[in-house]
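[09:14] KT: can someone run the structure on this one? pasting the chain below
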Amino acid sequence: MTPWLRIEGGADGVPLNLVGATGAAPVSASDWLTLALLAAISTVQRPLSVPGIASAPASNLEARLDNASGQMTRLWGQRPPMRRPATVYMGAAPIFAGIVTAIEAGPELRLSLEAGMDRPLSDSLPLRTNAVWGGWREVRVLPWGWGRITVTPIQYSDDQRVFVLLDHPIEGVDEVKRDGVATPAWAWYNGVDSTGRAVSFVELAEPLAEGERLAVTLRGRMHPATGRRLQTPAEILHDVLANLAGAPVTWGELDDYRTETAELVLGGLLDDNTISVRAAVDQIMQSAGGAWAAAMPGVAITWPPLPDAAAPALRVDALAAPDLQAATSATGIHTALRVLYDYDHAAGRFARAIQLEAPDAIKDYGRLELEWPAPWLRTPRQAEALGQRMLAWLARPRWRVSWRQSLADVATGSWVEIDHPRSPVQGRHRLVGAELDLDAAVLACAIEAPVGAPPAIETTRLSAAFDPLIQPGITVEVANGGILFTARNAPGQPLPGA
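[09:31] RB: done, structure tokens below
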């Protein structure tokens, strides 16, 4: 059975089927155009991304089409099917679904496809800037935020009294600080901006002085139906993919991951419209200690994987995988881990850190330190739990076991049961790679797992960033070609009108 490719609207709005030169049309329908120009389909790359350990791109493949006569150039020259849905089939069974992301035309036309969503995850985050309003002081990105976070509001009114907090409604505001000193003279509300978009505001009783810094601690996005704060990894991941990026991810798809991470509370901000959707998800998953792939059923899992004896598993033995190989490397072993967490977006820095060590692993391999940014984590308990999980994985040698078997549509992230005499790891493991080689009709699989008992781990240090020292009296700041004098009272609060 040979693969074939269907592109929705690939020929002036008409669905296009591409089959091999000797293949017959897989379907017969008057509204489908079928061309026997498919030369080959590359191996379907389907990696699992484990941010902080092994981040990976989205699942992808390349199709090669015969273009010696220029037929495909004539067909797509004026209207290439960019961002059109595309599906690879084996017979009537779909084995890859994605969209067209690139075309390179010559004697052979190369068509690049990216899987998992109806848009490339390499797209930048679709965040607005304040340039959409009638006026602004400096162009800034209007952020989205989840959980409890501290942000620098964006000026909305000319008199520096009304500021936009986030580019959506929020649950509430807990504290407002002016130059690091809490003030009670403010009010917050959800409303609409000059474009009609629902946003959140804070209004000050007294205008903000030039050079005065404003920081607001708030509770961010809510579930659109229940009004409950979105703060667990699965809730935030769904909101980012479905509501911010507009990808076709349903709430139910993340049920398993929601159960795994129900006790984990995150808080974070997305305020950079130059990073990709994939990079934003990697950032969230690294803080949560997870792995994900857009084309994987369930989208995300906890990493290291939580045991699940009841889940179906593909059996891998000497008969199914006669060419099994295993490899390990000194690269990637770390015996001390420093988790940076509780990121203050108003100050632009991490507020706290926790350091963990594996003493026995240090004796065996030396002191090998790794810094693990987790900006979305807020509490020492959860930062320590993340560090414990990750260091237990990182402080041991890890075997990568790979094999090839007969073609089967086994997804990345699926469970496999290893019972093979040449494998140094046995038992149940998650697939970190499941590549489909359609030409050879084989499935190339890989797992990765540490060996030996988990090491004892000690928490050696909790640390925090220094708070700014606010002195009473007169302070002087020189910036942007000007000098700013500020008079403060004994508690360090600016004197109005001074």
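[09:33] KT: thanks! The chain is about 10% helix and 40% strand.
[09:34] RB: yep, looked fine to me
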